[in-house]
């Protein structure tokens, strides 16, 4: 029986990147649908759950992707609400790579280290990757500070995280170098830079002089990088007394995690692979 992955997203064209990755992970067939509307989800799900019974259901799975994470989250909720009893298939959520990227980022930081009671700053932390990375760092035992250029936005996201995810994160406003210095002076040990491509968030002078700082990781692969003085290929490189992880090193692990997650979908028909379960897969890998 062929392993069929149904790819759903709200973007008008389904991601070529995610489809190729699915094939590389061992899917025999990818049925990709872009521009999916909420009212269309139920019929698509019925096609997945009523065609193969019993053990055969594990050979069908669903991937929720797309660049618009909030829209993808709505598709995910509708899909899960459509399942009933044993009529379900395994599902992976990774819109805009948010879960696999956050899992790879935090695994780079955490592997082989004790993070309990460490202070971590997530720069540009109000986006999908930043929120997930902050959550995972809290679960690893860190005291986490989440930054935005607008304090109100950081406060809003931190409140949402506490109410909906159950984690407490401290909001901070980071607009200029003085804000960075003020935050680092609170004894920050870890920085996870989660900004948009080509946006500089941290100057080398700031991180090089921060005595408490131990580890910096940046997911931005487009110049200027999020962290000045780093290279995208840094993979545990020590510079200025800090351990650095660049976007390519993180991205290589992200791809391994993505493929492993797709493979795991076909093991059973009742899995929901979200940021927590995808991170659990990442922790089994060599960072």
From TrEMBL:
Pfam families: Mpt_N
Stretches assigned to the Methylene-tetrahydromethanopterin dehydrogenase N-terminal domain: 17-96
Domain of life: Bacteria
Family matches, as Gene3D superfamilies: Methylene-tetrahydromethanopterin dehydrogenase, N-terminal domain, NAD(P)-binding Rossmann-like Domain
Alphabetized InterPro entries for the sequence: Aminoacid_DH-like_N_sf, Methyl-teptahyd_DH_N, Methyl-teptahyd_DH_N_sf, NAD(P)-bd_dom_sf, NAD-bd_H4MPT_DH
Protein's name according to its UniProt entry: Methylene tetrahydromethanopterin dehydrogenase
Source organism (scientific name): Desulfosporosinus metallidurans
């Amino acid at each position: 029986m062929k392993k069929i992955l149904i790819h759903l997203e709200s973007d008008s064209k389904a991601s070529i990147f995610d489809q190729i990755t699915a094939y590389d992970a061992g899917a025999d067939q990818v049925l990709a649908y872009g521009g999916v509307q909420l009212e269309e989800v139920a019929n698509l799900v019925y096609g997945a759950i009523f065609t193969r019974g019993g053990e055969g259901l594990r050979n069908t799975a669903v991937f929720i992707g797309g660049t618009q994470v909030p829209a993808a989250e709505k598709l995910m909720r509708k899909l899960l609400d459509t399942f009933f009893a044993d009529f379900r298939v395994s599902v992976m959520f990774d819109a805009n790579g948010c879960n696999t990227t956050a899992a790879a980022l935090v695994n780079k930081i955490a592997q082989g280290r004790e993070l309990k009671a460490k202070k971590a700053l997530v720069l540009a932390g109000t986006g999908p990757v930043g929120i997930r990375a902050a959550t995972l760092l809290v679960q690893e035992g860190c005291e986490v500070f989440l930054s935005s250029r607008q304090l109100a936005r950081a406060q809003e996201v931190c409140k949402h995280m506490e109410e909906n995810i159950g984690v407490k994160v401290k909001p901070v406003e980071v607009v200029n170098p003085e804000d960075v210095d003020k935050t680092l002076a609170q004894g920050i040990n870890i920085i996870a830079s989660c900004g948009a491509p080509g946006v500089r968030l941290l100057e080398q002078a700031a991180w090089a002089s921060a005595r408490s700082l131990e580890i910096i990781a940046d997911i931005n692969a487009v110049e200027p990088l999020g962290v000045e003085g780093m290279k995208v290929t840094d993979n545990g490189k020590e510079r200025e007394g800090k351990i650095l992880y660049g976007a390519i090193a993180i991205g290589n692990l992200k791809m391994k995690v993505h493929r492993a997650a797709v493979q795991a979908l076909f093991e059973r028909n009742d899995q929901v692979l979200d940021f927590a379960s995808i991170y659990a897969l990442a922790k089994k890998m060599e960072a």
